[in-house]
Design a protein that fits this description.
The protein is 37% helix and 24% strand. By secondary structure, it is of the alpha/beta class. The chain folds into three domains: 4-135 and 305-339, 3-Layer(aba) Sandwich (Rossmann fold); 138-301, Dihydrodipicolinate Reductase, domain 2; 352-434, ACT domain (Alpha-Beta Plaits, 2-Layer Sandwich), CATH 3.30.70.260.
């Protein structure tokens, strides 16, 4: 049978890994797919570098549209990234009747509804396993492996840069700015790390997973996003003393009590005994809670040339198996049938229900703790644990650390405003969310 012909747009880190793995494992892949899969055309602005990578194995061009226009190309892999030209090229490939494989989480999180609708209209597939958590097959798990379940929540460490920074802050007791510079020197962080450290990259991925988990459209604009730039080493240390670790988590949670979905990315205290709390360095992990299966955990490399290539090629194999199938009998892009997606609202952050870690710098005098606990009691916020440090010699102020039970975020914010106004509270209160993930 004639091999499937693939056009590759962009042969950077992931593109070169995809070409290398597909060539190295071609016989194993053919046995799984039922026919050969070959990258026969590559588009990259750096034509000379691209030719060095592919040798005589594929035609190299500078114009991506030449790949799309080639009638022999069955599948287009988009590895350019971003929202601009990548969106235009993906839509043009779909319009030309080509299946698309992409690792572009930003594109799909923002424009996925339009792209999936266009693909459905043309009867082609858009596969995106590599867009979330690199080599971890979490998209496959949500789309197919957990089909029998009503997913209740998911929580993931889905950005390796921030996880590396937090691991280093905990291990070495250093503040964020110091560790960020080290991460950049080692190549774990980009020269402009904004999307990573501000939580945007994780929010793109959480948005896609929330759509797959709950059968809702992609709604990145409604996600609550916080990064790690304001985290202090002292809070990581206090969390550790209380039996918790701080991770940047992407969280999506079904709220049957209010008929909505929580979609949020932020630093989170997690019990140190949880497996996900022990995911260190640049590794990724996603926990999914289903009503039938219970809790499952998916762990592995969330980035890198060949780990991400593994996911890209898995998508190529899926499309190769299914491209002649009736489009109505393929696995839907977002797991649920397109006309069965629900308009379940994404809840505003004030409606989120979670527990909290609070650190208050207070005057070391009588009545301070009573005033703070009274405000929490009046807001019906119960205390789970409390840690009061002795003031250092010669100082008349100290830290009070409070862990609360679950409460509604809006009520906590109102209570925080009252506590902040106390004359004995001497600095801005640090507030972090806490999840038991059980």
């Amino acid at each position: 049978m004639k091999p499937i012909q693939v056009g590759l747009l962009g042969i950077g880190t992931v593109g070169s890994g995809t070409f290398a793995v597909l060539k190295r494992n071609q016989e194993e892949i053919r046995r799984r797919a039922g026919r050969g899969i070959e990258i026969t055309m590559v588009a990259d602005l750096n034509v000379e570098r691209a030719r060095e990578i592919v040798g005589e194995g594929a035609q190299v061009v500078a114009d991506a549209r030449a790949v799309i226009a080639n009638p022999d190309i069955d599948i287009v892999i988009e590895l350019i990234g971003g929202y601009g030209i990548a969106k235009a090229l993906v839509l043009e490939a779909i319009a030309a009747g080509k299946h698309v494989v992409t690792a572009n989480k930003a594109l799909l999180a923002v424009h996925g509804t339009e792209i999936f609708a266009a693909a459905r209209e043309k009867g082609v597939m858009v596969a995106f396993e590599a867009a979330v958590a690199g080599g971890i097959p979490i998209i496959k798990a949500l789309r197919e492996g957990l089909t029998a379940n009503q997913v209740q929540w998911l929580a993931g460490i889905i950005n390796g840069t921030t996880n590396f920074i937090l691991s280093e802050m905990r291990d070495k007791g250093l503040d964020f700015d110091v560790v960020l510079k080290e991460a950049q020197r080692l190549g774990y962080a980009e020269a402009d790390p904004t999307f990573d450290i501000e939580g945007v990259d994780a929010a793109h991925k959480a948005t896609l997973m929330s759509a797959l988990a709950f059968g809702i459209p992609v709604q990145f604009d409604k996600a609550h996003v916080e990064g790690i730039t304001k985290l202090s080493a002292v809070d990581i240390r206090y969390a550790e003393q209380l039996g918790y670790r701080i991770k940047l988590l992407g969280i999506a949670k079904r709220r049957t009590d209010v008929g909505g979905i929580e979609l949020r990315v932020h630093p989170t205290l997690v019990p140190s005994k949880r497996l996900i709390a022990n995911v260190e360095g640049a590794m990724n992990a996603v926990m999914v809670q289903g009503d039938a299966v219970g809790t499952t955990l998916y762990y592995g490399k969330g980035a890198g040339s060949e780990p991400t290539a593994s996911a890209v090629i898995a998508d190529l194999v899926d499309i190769t198996r299914l491209h002649t199938a009736d489009p109505d009998h393929r696995v839907p892009h977002l797991a649920f049938q397109p006309d069965e997606l629900h308009a379940t609202p994404i809840l505003p952050i004030d409606a989120v229900r979670t527990a909290f870690y609070l650190r208050l710098r207070v005057a070391d005098q009588k009545g301070v703790l009573a005033a703070i606990t009274r405000i929490l009691a009046e807001a019906d916020i119960s205390i789970d644990a409390l840690l009061q440090r002795e003031s250092a010699e010669g100082e008349n102020q100290t830290d009070v650390i409070i862990l609360t039970h679950e409460t509604v975020e809006g009520e906590m914010r109102a209570a925080l405003a009252k506590m902040q106004s106390l004359p004995t509270v001497l600095a801005p209160i640090v507030s972090l969310r806490k999840e038991e993930l059980a």
